[in-house]
Design a protein that fits this description.
Elements lengths: L1 H19 L5 H31 L2 H23 L4 H29 L8 H21 L6 H24 L5 H19 L10 H22 L5 H35 L13 H14 L6 H7 L4 H10 L5 H11 L1 H22 L23 H33 L10 H12 L6 H13 L4 H13 L2 H11 L1 H24 L5 H7 L6 H21 L1 H5 L22
Helix pairs in contact: 1-4, 1-5, 1-6, 2-3, 2-5, 2-7, 2-8, 3-4, 3-7, 4-5, 4-6, 4-7, 5-6, 5-8, 8-22, 9-13, 9-15, 9-22, 10-12, 10-14, 11-12, 12-14, 13-14, 13-17, 14-20, 15-17, 16-18, 17-18, 17-21, 18-20, 19-20
Length: 581
């Protein structure tokens, strides 16, 4: 029992030292944070989620989402009660989840070290479990103040050590009966870890060539440590995972590169702000203007909300904001590659009609959005030379879409490897649609990045109509958009809007089921096949461009795009900063 006990406590000590050694040196805190971030992300996706899926199956994803959103929900409740700030309360809930997880890790260490399985020990698993604790402990210390608040941060780390040691003692006594419990804890903790590491991503941003390089190297070491922590019994699955990830990347890179180039060309030659619709214009006409603007001018991510805030006519605003997330060049090309012509056309037409109908119905009369006149910041800068405009537009699109595509490809490879064939084939498709709608409605999805995941889900048995309905619902509507819609069209109309989007997506699911041979193209693309030279070259080009942008902005700022904290208006509002040493 001494070995797993030392591993449980020692890993926390190493994490604390990792966080405390830089002290108050600002130049070192950034790389340490980047190290802890990438290592924690690797632990979640290469250790915790696969471990939980082996026991819980598809239920893993629901438990994971619960762990991801539970701290924020409880934090909101606590802030309403006046007991703590929302961020602080959410952090406390996430910390409690980590304590439970470390008890589970200790149980695994104690049980596996006490009992041999198949004539061999499990020292490799003990080391792996201890290794992934190091960055998590470092992130906890940094989240609770680091070197500036040593007492509080040290007590939090002590709690992690005690919980891990307690689990080892319990696991030494009994190993049976804890498999299901630890799987639930692993899935729940995976979400809570992501919640914890999402705090303060913009602090201590790297500056200068040396600072950026140090931050980049720290992130690389963290990723390597997380991968080591995930090795062991799942080595074969990890090898297949990487193989399928490479395959999906080769398939996606050519169309993604073409989409980015075309979208940047459009942004470099047009003003992104739409022409103002007259106040007396009919709602149907204003809604059509909004949808047409979404089709003709590509907007990246949070840029949709930025432009929407500056549109005065509610119907025009709704038409643009509901249509733009799906009616984009990048989504269309990637969807054609993975989903085929018929299903892609069905999605595009349905999204356009749904956006126009709801905007015309609920747009209401013209009302000023309460903002000052347009300052021109929503334009790429038509006064500059073409090459500068094109470069800024391309880099802005890549900054936003890069992290989302990485997440989408990782998720697609995960589903492909760990979800058995036919596992997503529901006995009751409409029940599956209800579950997917409940998950997608409050969430935010980047439509292009979700396409590979949808394709793999279809190959695993999910009805194509149900899959694309969830995609459109998640991309078109989310809680952040709901808050904005309430401020513009009122609570009642916003709720009707949400119900209308759900109804429209359900209609899309029904239409998708009626398209003949809709899944055959997807099955052929998802199946393993030899990549071509074009896919390899496009992947190399995109990888080099993406690494350059990650190096320049910093890994944490790049990841922060997922939680909306990285320069909400950067992609269409802020000029690209000059790269100086």
């Amino acid at each position: 029992m001494l070995i797993p006990l030392a591993a449980a406590v020692g890993s926390v000590v190493l994490g604390v030292l990792l966080a405390f050694v830089p002290g108050r040196q600002e130049s070192m805190l950034g790389p340490i944070r980047s190290f802890a971030l990438t290592a924690s992300l690797a632990v979640v996706f290469m250790h915790l989620l696969p471990e939980a899926y082996e026991v819980l199956g598809a239920l893993t994803f629901l438990v994971f989402l619960a762990g991801l959103f539970l701290p924020s929900l409880l934090g909101a409740v606590a802030s309403r009660l006046g007991r703590a700030s929302r961020q602080r309360a959410g952090l406390e809930v996430g910390y409690v989840g980590l304590l439970l997880h470390h008890v589970g890790d200790g149980l695994s260490m104690g049980a596996l070290s006490e009992h041999d399985h198949g004539g061999h020990g499990h020292s490799d698993v003990v080391v792996a479990l201890a290794a992934h604790t190091v960055p998590v402990a470092a992130m906890v210390v940094l989240a609770f103040g680091g070197a500036s608040r040593k007492k509080e941060a040290g007590l939090r780390a002590l709690g992690l050590a005690v919980s891990g040691a307690s689990g080892v003692v319990l696991g030494h006594v009994v190993s049976a009966g804890f498999v299901a419990v630890t799987a639930w804890v692993a899935a729940l903790t995976a979400g809570m870890v992501l919640h914890v590491v999402a705090h303060d991503l913009k602090q201590h941003a790297p500056t200068g060539s040396w600072g950026r390089t140090l931050d980049f190297v720290g992130a690389g070491f963290g990723l390597g440590l997380g991968a080591v922590g995930a090795s062991g019994h799942g080595a074969a699955e990890h090898a297949v995972f990487l193989e399928r990830l490479v395959d999906f990347t080769f398939d996606t890179a050519p169309v993604l590169l073409v989409a980015l180039l075309l979208a940047a060309l459009v942004q470099a030659n047009v003003e992104l702000m739409p022409p103002r619709v007259p106040a007396q214009a009919r709602r149907a006409r204003a809604a059509a203007f909004g949808v047409a603007h979404a089709v003709s001018r590509p907007l990246a991510g949070s840029g949709v909300l930025t432009v929407g805030r500056k549109i005065e006519h509610p119907a025009q605003m709704l038409g643009l904001m509901l249509a733009a997330p799906v009616l984009s060049i990048d989504f269309a090309l990637i969807s054609l590659r993975f989903l085929g012509v018929r299903l892609t056309l069905a999605v595009l037409v349905a999204a356009a009609l749904l956006a126009w109908a709801l905007a015309a119905l609920l747009g209401g009369r013209w009302s000023a959005p309460g903002l000052g006149p347009d300052s021109g910041r929503v334009q790429v800068g038509l006064g500059h030379g073409f090459w500068l405009r094109f470069q800024r537009a391309f880099e802005g699109l890549l900054d936003h879409l890069g992290i989302w595509m990485v997440l989408g490809l990782l998720s697609a490879a995960f589903v492909e490897v760990y979800v058995p064939s036919g596992a997503l084939d529901p006995q009751h498709p409409w029940l599956a649609l209800c579950v997917i709608s409940a998950v997608a409605l409050p969430s935010y999805l980047s439509a292009p990045s979700a396409v590979p995941v949808v394709a793999v889900a279809i190959a695993k048995g999910l009805p194509p109509g149900v899959a694309v309905a969830g995609l459109v619902l998640g991309a078109s509507f989310n809680l952040r958009a709901l808050v904005f819609f309430r401020s513009r069209i009122g609570t009642a109309r916003s709720l009707v809007l949400a119900l209308g989007i759900v109804a429209g997506c359900w209609a899309l699911a029904w239409v998708g089921q009626g398209i003949p041979a809709v899944g055959e193209h997807t099955l052929s693309v998802v199946a393993p096949h030899a990549p071509g030279i074009v896919g390899r070259l496009a992947t190399l080009v995109l990888l080099l461009l993406l690494l350059r942008r990650v190096w320049f902005h910093g890994v944490r700022a790049w990841v922060a795009e997922l939680v909306g904290s990285y320069a909400h208006e950067h992609h269409i509002a802020q000029p690209a900063p000059r790269e100086v040493n």
